[in-house]
Amino acid sequence: MPPVLLLLLALPFLLAAVIALSGRLSRVAAAGLAGAAPLLGLALLGSLTPAVLDGEVVRSSWQWLPQIGLDITLRLDGLAWMFTGLVLGIGALVVLYAHYYLSPQDSTRRFYSYLLLFMGAMLGMVLSGNLLLLMVFWELTSISSFLLIGFWSHRREAREGARMALIITGAGGLTLLGGVLLIGRIVGSFDLDVVLASGELIRSSALYPWALLLVLAGIFTKSAQFPFQFWLPHAMAAPTPVSAYLHSATMVKAGVFLLARLHPALAGTELFFYVVSGIGAITLLIGAWNAIFQHDLKGLLAYSTISHLGLITLLFGLSTPMAVVAGVFHILNHATFKASLFMAAGIIDHETGTRDMRRLGGLRKLMPVTSALAIVASLAMAGIPLLNGFLSKEMLFAEALATEGPDWMRNAVSLAALLAGVLGVAYSLRFVHDTFFGKGPLDIDVVPHEPPRWMKVPVAVLVVICLAVGIVPALTVATTLRAGAQAILGPALPDYSLAVWHGFNLPLAMSAIGVAGGIALYVGLRRFTDLYAARNRPVGKQLFQRNLEVLSGLAHRFTAALANGSLQRMLLALVLVAMLVVAAPYVADPAMPVWPAPQPLPLLGWTLWLVMLACAFAALFLFQQRLLAVIVMGGTGLMVALTFVFLSAPDLALTQLMVEMVTLALMLLAMNYLPARSLPEPSRWRKRRDALIAIIAGTGITALAYSLMTLPPNTMAGELLLRSLPEAYGHNVVNVILVDFRGFDTFGEITVFGIAALVVHALLRRSRMAPEQIMPGPPIKLPVPADLAQIMFPLTMTVSIFLFLRGHNAPGGGFIAGLVLAVPLLIQYVIQGTVSVESRFGFDYIRCIGLGLLIAVLSGMASMLFGVPFLTSGHVEWQLPLIGEVPLASAIGFDTGVYLVVFGGVMLILSMMGTIKPSRTRNARNGEIDIHRRSARTGEMH
């Protein structure tokens, strides 16, 4: 397993973390670290290039979740190699460009960390050798692109564009996941090699149409194909380096990459042919037509990007070997000239303060170098000879004329290609003429001039590539094109020539008609219409926002009806749903389970049960007196803990006891903001209804618990007991289950718990609630309890560490130890106050949660370095002087993360509950509360 692929993938993520966590980092240092990721990645990619060009597929694989077919498999073939080069190469140029583009007010640390996060997500997607792993990185590209598009979060259009892109591409990701799951069901594996080799099996399956349409929906949303193309122009609110990266070589190319990647498995049917080529042709024309009437430079480039993505989709839809070669070729060509054009547009905006072509013009005299570079790139976009865009456009015309199928389809594709050529020349001509020629610039506050030298270097590099490929394609791009095409079509490629001149033929005639028609169209529009007065009506955006408004309205009405601030109503809904779910199997199969005869219960068991029953009934009758109700409910919890002791479950007993103590403290803190007495029940009918529901639900839970406790002894428990010591090196099977056998579940649980604590912190940090009663005079000092609390803390901390260290072999563990440490600290909060405690201890609970999750992740991933699944335990025995042999399991690292997350999460929630700011209302400050006027949601006065 060559580690090069893993290092190649990890580099952007590691450097993104370094940049994000570096408190004081200069702009130059941030740019240097960001640039190191793609440059080092290119070096690593270069070391694998000879093997890839020889036709070898480089693989690295680690088992992760083999039960569901999810392995961390990295796979580098010709197509992945080509896209990796694009992502890294253009990424390096974008980093250099962004260093000069971003203003001093922009956070370069945040920008470069987002950019590298996106770069890593793209690399993960193109290198994935497992469809489920590909889905993980696919969604990560949506999230990271959301952060990049919304980087200027102070601008409304940036926030709207980022939200629109996330919703559209996120929804497409869900459909793609459905398609991937169907493919996995058809093939029986999610391994990419198996899927690509199972094309006949997939196409012959009855599930193929559904799988294809779901996959295409994800592809079309990502690559802005009709009818989802409207999100891309609004993403232009991002900084120009983001647009140059996302909309030339990366995000929008993710869809066509997946179309190319799955082409051997999905292509070859009429459904694929008509849907993909049809959508591609429609997108090609819609994007090209709209590009002509844009006034914003980036808006024109956005619609032209939509058009060119439609062109690539059309070529892959035609599905002939030569069309696939042309599609791969245009992916390369479009990435180079479009990235250079976006960067040129950013330079113009940077130096003039506007991108409005109605206010520009004449820049060739003020910015001659930038003008020359942008004009050459525009001509490449228009498909002018001796530039790279001309070659792939010629291939498009040739494949359109050779379309297989009915004559009407061949004629329609040929006409669409010709119209696209005309429109492409027209909008390219507008970009050049309205920006660099004519009168102007107009109504700008600065005198435009050339940007810094190194800001032009990325543009110049890409333009030189456009020229080199256009003039000597066989010497520049032939190897890359062959590698990318062979990964899709196999080693037997069709015969094709990359010569600049192929003689006089129909594709050349179509190119000439396209150039002449485009010039005539642009001149005609300028002469006979007021092109500058054209209004761009964002129909797609309006429909999108209208749909959002309708959905938000429905959600608001549903929420208002269900969650109106009444916890009783929410609890009722929860219990009713649970009853329906539990009752459903018995409705389908009315057979009742066969229960064994009960065992005799000793006197101690009857005592515990009767006390528990008495506490439950006492809470029922004392519910209006909140404090008494909380106390007797605590008695119920204590009896549950003693019941666990009675049943020889010390781990559960300790956990229950600690949770009960923390919950009691939380309830007491919350009661400070609640009336002393609950309101009486409104009606006798409601009491009867609630009593009936409680009896049914309680009976069901009793039956379920009895069924579980009377299962036959030959269950999974026996297997876990046998495997605990030899496989996980622990005698305490409960802790072994938590940190090893079901460690991934535990990781998910502590993640959710940490998120919940952060949500509570976010909600209470700025909230204001009035306490129920304000005691007169200064706070009462309790010196003796305060001293006892200080003495208790080191003792309980010792107990906490003791329980933590022994948890793998005796009752204890990270969860219990974290709660044990939290209880004495909580007592000090109650007795001495927040300021006193935090001034002495200085715990940062948020960092504690983050550190715990990081330790848990790293300890889980460490096992993968030894070729075993995530969170697999290891074991060593150390010989220490004076102490002797000390056995140590690697699960202690993961348990350390659990320990920190539990402690930090509990203390963050409880400390926030104790430091809520008082209400601003005068009556509330005076403690004058009318419970009938209090808001059920915020505690504020109405």
Your description of this structure?
Helix content is 70%, strand content 3%. It is mostly helical and 942 residues long.
Give the helices and strands, then pairings.
Elements: H1 4-21, H2 27-53, E1 58-65, E2 70-76, H3 78-101, H4 108-127, H5 131-149, H6 156-187, H7 192-196, H8 199-203, H9 208-222, H10 231-234, H11 240-246, H12 251-261, H13 263-266, H14 270-292, H15 297-318, H16 321-352, H17 363-366, H18 368-382, H19 388-401, H20 407-436, H21 453-471, H22 473-476, H23 478-489, H24 506-528, H25 539-562, H26 567-588, H27 603-621, H28 626-646, H29 650-671, H30 684-709, H31 716-728, H32 733-741, H33 743-765, H34 783-806, H35 814-832, H36 834-841, H37 845-862, E3 875-880, E4 884-889, H38 891-913, H39 922-925
Antiparallel strand pairs: 1-2, 3-4
Can you tell me the overall shape?
A: elongated
Secondary structure: helix percent: over 70%
N- and C-termini, Cα separation: 66 Å
User: Total number of β-strand segments?
Assistant: 4
